[in-house]
């Protein structure tokens, strides 16, 4: 099956086939570096291409919702003018987050277009577990030792975006370290990753070029 045939028959594929064939593009980075904005913008751009691309989906960061829930359990409110009061994180929390993030990703891959954009993933959950619980805590990795193939990681550079407190963030001083951890982990795993730089428009344009290159490579492989 060549690329044209694949795309023409995409909507007739089973959910299982779509899940296996979808190219997964994951946006990762430290806190307040524009990950969600870039993920949404990419999904919107590819939807605008129409046809099978009109159902391009993006997956939100489950860990954020989970954090808000933990704060509520502690009886704390969210205040944009104050720094986040760290929840009582335990290894099991990161296992839960990783598993649910992956479930959401797989569900979207099985129902969307040939490309899926993810605002973080279970690998990022492993990095956050290291941030809060140290190198010895590996619950997220143990819960998901192997992840589905990723077509591309886009790494948002903390130097391009000013830190904005939203009531749950607490890691402005950790942003350079977190950025380096992502670089190190992606390099160690041999994942295809690329920094994206500049303002919102520049990042989007650069990312589209990178994603289109991945799509073109698939076409060449299938011809």
What does this structure look like?
- Strands 2-3-1-4-5 form a 5-stranded parallel beta sheet, sandwiched between helices.
- It has a single domain (3-222), classed as P-loop containing nucleotide triphosphate hydrolases (Rossmann fold), CATH 3.40.50.
- With 223 residues, the protein is α/β, with parallel strands linked by helices.
- It contains 9 helices and 5 strands.
- Helix 8 links the parallel strand 4 and strand 5 (193-196).
- Residues 80-85 have low confidence and may be disordered.
- It is globular.
- Helix 2 packs across helix 5 (91-109), helix 3 (35-47) crosses helix 9 (200-222) and helix 5 (91-109) packs antiparallel against helix 6.
- This is Nicotinamide riboside kinase.
- It holds the Pfam family AAA_28.
- InterPro entries: NAD_biosynth-regulator, NadR/Ttd14_AAA_dom, P-loop_NTPase.
Alpha-carbon Rg, integer: 18 Å
Secondary structure category? alpha/beta
* Coarse shape: globular
- Indicate the percent of residues in helices: 40-55%
Per CATH, the class reads: Alpha Beta
Give helix and strand order, one letter per element, not per position: HHEHEHHEHHEHEH
Number of domains: 1
Keywords: Kinase, Transferase
InterPro entries: NAD_biosynth-regulator, NadR/Ttd14_AAA_dom, P-loop_NTPase
Organism: Conyzicola nivalis
Pfam families: AAA_28 (PF13521)
């Amino acid at each position: 099956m060549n690329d044209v045939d694949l795309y023409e028959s995409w909507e007739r594929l089973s959910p299982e086939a779509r899940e296996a064939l979808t190219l997964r593009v994951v946006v990762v980075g430290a806190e307040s570096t524009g990950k969600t904005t870039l993920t949404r913008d990419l999904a919107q751009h590819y939807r605008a291409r129409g046809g099978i691309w009109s159902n391009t989906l993006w997956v939100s960061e489950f860990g954020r919702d989970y954090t808000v829930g933990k704060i509520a359990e502690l009886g704390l409110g969210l205040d944009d003018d104050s720094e986040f009061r760290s929840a009582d994180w335990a290894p099991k929390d990161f296992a839960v987050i990783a598993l649910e993030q992956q479930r959401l990703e797989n569900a979207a891959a099985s129902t969307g277009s040939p490309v899926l954009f993810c605002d973080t993933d279970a690998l990022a959950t492993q990095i956050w577990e290291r941030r809060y619980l140290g190198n010895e805590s590996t619950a997220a990795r143990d819960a998901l030792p192997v992840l589905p193939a990723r077509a591309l990681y886009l790494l948002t550079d903390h130097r391009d975006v000013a830190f904005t407190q939203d009531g749950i963030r607490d890691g402005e001083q950790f942003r350079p370290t977190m950025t380096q951890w992502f670089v190190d982990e992606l390099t160690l795993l041999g994942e295809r990753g690329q920094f994206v730089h500049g303002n919102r428009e520049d990042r989007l344009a650069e990312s589209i070029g990178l994603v289109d290159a991945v799509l073109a490579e698939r076409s060449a492989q299938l011809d």
